[in-house]
Specification:
- Keywords: Elongation factor, Protein biosynthesis.
- This is GreA/GreB family elongation factor.
- GO terms for molecular function: translation elongation factor activity.
- With about 160 residues, the chain is α/β, with parallel strands linked by helices.
- The protein folds into two domains: about 55 residues, no CATH class; about 60 residues, Chitinase A, domain 3.
- It is built from three helices and seven strands.
- The strands form two sheets. It has a five-stranded mixed beta sheet with strand order 5-4-3-7-6. The chain has a two-stranded parallel sheet with strand order 1-2.
- α1 packs antiparallel against α2.
- The longest helix is centred in the middle third of the chain and has 20 residues.
């Protein structure tokens, strides 16, 4: 048989599995962030303990390494001053005639569908440091957003 038709194993032809990428910058979280990360770690450890398929186990281990790193590097962001938007605050805004409330949270806590934005998101960046009653620029438009209220997120 020709060498061209031999294959040592299927493993040598698989794509390499890289680690999950870590977001750039500090791992700032809200006061409830460490508990959310710990819950994710516990859920993954339980899933890993019950998994028997080796490929699925490798995927769970990979995800678990990511969350262990996030737990080890998490820093609770300092609370901003009273009435100032920052990490760990709920900000009521009016933009384009619509009112909505945005929570500014850490990267791993973000859920844009539930209006929880990472502090690195463009809208959150525009809001951070703004105070109640202030108007801020956004999307190339001057004073595009009006800050209606700012309150801390309950831990």
């Amino acid at each position: 048989m020709s060498v061209a038709f031999r294959r040592e194993s299927d493993e040598e032809h698989k794509e390499p599995r890289f680690e999950l990428p870590l977001p750039p910058g500090p791992n700032l979280v809200t006061a409830r962030g460490p508990a959310l990360i710990a819950a994710k770690v516990a859920a993954l450890e339980a899933a890993l303990a019950g998994e028997t398929a080796e490929e699925a186990r490798e995927g769970l281990k990979r995800e678990l390494r990511y969350w262990h790193t996030r737990a080890a590097t998490a820093e609770v962001a300092p609370r901003p001053g009273e009435g100032v938007a920052g990490i760990g605050t709920r900000v009521a805004i009016r933009m384009n005639g619509r009112e909505r409330a945005i929570e500014i949270v850490g990267h791993d806590e973000a859920d844009p569908a539930a209006d929880r934005l990472s502090f690195q998101a463009p809208l959150a960046q525009a809001l951070i440091g703004a105070e109640e009653g202030e108007r801020v620029d956004f999307g190339g438009r001057a004073e595009a957003i009006e800050i209606l209220a700012v309150e801390p997120i309950a831990a």
